[in-house]
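In the laboratory, one determines a bound structure by crystallizing the protein with its ligand and collecting diffraction data. In a computational setting the workflow is compressed into a single prediction: the sequence and the ligand go in, and a structural description comes out. We illustrate the idea with magnesium ion.
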Amino acid sequence: MKTTLNGTAVFLITLPTMGAEPLRDNPSMTTATDFQRDLDLGLTWLNTFSNLGEDFYTPVSPQALPQPYWIGRSEAVARELGLPAHWLASDELLHALIGNRVIAGTRPLASVYSGHQFGQWAGQLGDGRALLLGDTANGLEVQLKGAGLTPYSRMGDGRAVLRSSIREFLCSEAMHGLGIATSRALCVVGSDAPVRRETMETAAVVTRVAPSFVRFGHFEHFSYRDQHAQLKTLADHVIDRHYPHCRLDTGNPYAALLQAVCLRSADMVAQWQAVGFCHGVMNTDNMSILGLTIDYGPFQFLDAFDPGHVCNHSDTAGRYAFNRQPAIIYWNLSCLAQALLPLIGDQTLAIAALETFKTAFSAALEQKMRSKLGIPAHCEIESVQLRSLIEGILSLLAHERVDYTIFWRRLSHSDGGRNSEAVRDLFLDRAAIDAWLRDHAQCLAAVPTQQATELMLRTNPKFVLRNHLGEQAIRAAKAKDFSLVATLLTLLESPCDEHPGFDAYADFPPDWASGIEISCSS
Ligand code: AMP
Ligand code: MG
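The predicted complex, in structure-token form:
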């Protein structure tokens, strides 16, 4: 049944009832009567966020979609959740995740938050298409993204399309494979129900998992409304669950919270810069209070190294350019500091906590770049020498627009400088790269070659989720071939392994890759 709401096409699906045509792929597995019972996954649901009370959310049930199918599944995330792997092959879970069936023990809700978008206060936003099912006894929250309309959908349709859902699924697991703090993705399921974007597309739902989906914007929401009691409830919830040391270390747990978030965010963005990841929409509503990479939209792993690269086609001013990310995180943290000020109560303390970001970021980035260069933590090196080595190579890479991932991987295989031909081949200015390679070899003189090589090979990935790889998986998935999603998942789960036979996925991007335009539309 099709109707319209605020001019947006919406598909209303009637839940299956006794005697109705059961929605299932394998009739032997599920009966229509089964759908009337809640699905017991054997998980213990605590619903901690739900217990905060309805100032923080609105209870909302997922809206069903017809004829669901599996697109991608992560057994690793199932293990994290304590969900036996057989569920990822079951019709029952498939139907529950598409909204046809309730998962026993969950209390689905859409949370309310606000935020700064592209540098401007945007007011109330909220989970417009994501529903929190609850948190399990092992400390993980489970969300369905694309599960339908909520009171916070504003002009949106509450849905997510196939292409962006595949990108979020794969990138969540790719970031985890790289050792970068991130929300995880259990699976992505699809339906042929049409969803209108610039063209007609189809719907999908990502089941994502994280210890918390609380964002900076949740704090901004209550602070901007002078709802200080709710602000404190939220801060206490986050401290008790995720930062208990903030109560022990200091007389001001809220300043300690701010500092802890600064440190985690510094580490996260240092990892982004080191691996060449561009987030694309670093609005404060997309910033995790746990310093996790969340809300994958128009993200991109750099192909050619371009420090000013803007991956979000909608970001015409380049606010979220690759080289601005550390400054933007700091700007976002200052919004969080402002929001927490009523609880911290002392501006000097808030500023001191905020300022820890700067040294933490520099230290984290330096440590990550050392590893990329093969210089172990214990190896002493003059910081001027290290800085000149790092700045030297980044400026050469930028000048010649060298492929960022391929450069670092080839350097890792260069046998401590004895076998650098494949690296030299990447540069036109051979004199410049030779001079840099000599400096690098000199820095590595005191490090056993095997040790440097091992460090570099486990730091510099062979496989990253380049835009064109995601695009190929999406095109195949549109034709109902999900094998490339599975292949990429396997490669990206251990991106520093060689994976013999899959070198094509570690190659330079094809020419058409530079024409891929990814915007906020998802
Ligand atoms: P994003 O840029 O994806 O982080 O989204 C910003 C805000 O818009 C969040 O509150 C989202 O929940 C909401 N939103 C984005 N897309 C949709 C959609 N298709 N339907 C409803 N809300 C949406
Ligand atoms: Mg978002």
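Residues 146 and 159 are 4 Å apart (CA to CA). Keep in mind that any predicted model is a hypothesis to be tested, not a measurement.
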